Amino acid sequence: MDILKNYSFTLLLLSGILLGGICGVVFGEDASVVKPIGDIFLNLIFVLIVPLVFLSISSSICNMRQSNMVGKVILNIVLVFLATAVVSALLAYGFISIYNPLGGIQHSISDIGYIPPVANQLSSAEVLVKTFTVSDFLLLFTKSNLLPLIIFSIFFGLATSMVGEKGKPVVSFLNAGTEVILKMMSIIMKAAPIGLGCYFADTVGKLGEQILNGYMQVFILFLILTGISFFGLNSLYALLAGGRKGFFAFWKNIPAPALTAIATSSSAACIPINIESSKRMGVPASIAETVIPLGTNIHKDGSIMGGVIKIIFLFTIFGQTMPMPNVFVIIGMALLVGAVMGAIPSGGMTGELLICSVFGFSPELAGTILIISTIIDIPATLLNSTGNVVCAMLVARLSEGKNRTKNHKSIPSKQ
Description:
Elements: H1 2-27, H2 35-65, H3 71-98, H4 109-112, H5 124-132, H6 146-162, H7 168-189, H8 192-207, H9 209-253, H10 255-264, H11 271-280, H12 285-298, H13 301-317, H14 326-343, H15 348-359, H16 366-375, H17 377-400, H18 404-407
Helix pairs in contact: 1-8, 2-6, 2-7, 2-8, 3-9, 3-13, 3-14, 3-17, 8-9, 9-13, 9-17, 10-17, 11-12, 11-17, 12-14, 12-17, 13-14, 13-17, 14-15, 15-16
């Protein structure tokens, strides 16, 4: 019953999307009659994105600055998180380059609404300026300029924490404001099965059954990537962290965190079991209790893989090809999407809007790739959660050297 409770909303959401897809196939372009309902839902979400990004990121930076963490360990955490994230992004890009789920799709760009990428119209320097900055304060607070808003929010949070006592009222406002916006978001999301169902009905009605097949192929591709990452990359990282002993310790203790991730579909719910399992693998308590919560917020390998797929998905639908230099743009954006989805509660839609704004797609298309987030949610959570456990092992190795297991005995498993 607990599992059913945990998945009740996901099941409703998938049911709404499935029903919308069926209506799109049956009624074709006539399904556009329900498009206004989908647009109303997306607009309600859109108006909350900007305050959510600003309040949540600024408050997170303030709270992080107030905690006392050792510099060397934090540096190692950043290095490990970045290295494993890049590997995940490269793996996803490599596979989707070999097999693109939408490679043979026939489409009509005019039916969907497409804004040519800014990169096709401006020089590299101009793209850099327009991607990371805006020329007016008010321009920050639009969903089309999320990356400049994120940068502003980071600086605002840092400045607030640096002024000390005088900044405490602002910190309280940021924390309280975040809670209020999250409550508003949770209320609106109750209508997600209907809103996304209507949006999907219109999308399928315009693109036809081929888009349904595309989503199915995306899901299959992600399952393959999940298997390679969970069994292959995690084994490699465990070997690097502790040799054969670390390898066997990891696989002896990882089943419980893995099953918890699958059963709850929540990385946050896995924090206690992940910390416990990390300690049993020989990770010092101080490192485990820092890496796991921090990783839950900013390190999500599964979401990064999903980000790569979403970007390629959009470009494929519109028949666009990206030159080789932009491979780094795709990977960099996927890393940012993974961090945003972790750092911002309910950050899924924020990640989709960020992709659309940076690559020049209409914000309305965020719903199209939000569906990908829904169908890959469980395997992505598995990678996001268990990946933090093996990262804790790597951080311990970097921080304490190869002989760390002699100084920290593994906690025996509870039988």
